[in-house]
Amino acid sequence: MRVSEGRLHGAPDVPARTSVANKRALGLENKTVLTTFGLLSRGKGIEYVLDALPLIFEKHSEATYLLLGKTHPNLRKLDGESYRESLVERARLLGIGDRVRFEDRFISDDEVVSYLMATDVYVSASLERSQSVSGTLSYAVACGRVAIATEYMYARELLAEGRGITVPFRDSRALAGAVNLVLGDPMLRRSIEANAHRFGRRMTWPQVAAKYEAAFVDSGLQTRPAAGSRATLGISCAPTR
Prior knowledge:
- It is built from 11 helices and 6 strands.
- By secondary structure, the protein is an alpha/beta fold.
- It is globular and about 55 Å long.
């Protein structure tokens, strides 16, 4: 399955690097880092990630999970922080509260890249089967991280051909199995990282800008913005999902 060029989400252009070199600055040295970031909402399926963690931590005692980002403003308006608080309580009841880091704040693009470059496995457990784009997943792939996602539309396309792994919805055991498989197989991990980073070069901002410019020209709009300009093209660059 090929990802539609029209759905490729812009992402930063970063060099291929292992996670080891980027962990020290974030206080994560000697840790295996699992990460999810973006605006927090019920549709992200974080509860299923938390339920998978004991099975992962059992095999990887050095692992930790980072959940980065503020609660979605629409959810906060309706329910306050009740969903986040329920996740914190869930982690406590599972006995993993000290190994899950909740960052309840806005994460800038530069910070996102820093955290991703220190990440070993990026997890996207969305519950929305028809989700057709994901900026967060795009960033992870562009950074050459191993991404494990539920089998929503965009994930199935973006992670095809060895660029990542998809698992069934609401299946914590399958999610844990996929994470443990990758962490236990260095050759598989390196292969996925290389495939993801290679494909990610098609999603860098200059590449996306060039595609928009070509589309505008083909449609008869002769305005030719400077290559790589996000503002001129009106392209959204915030990876919120």
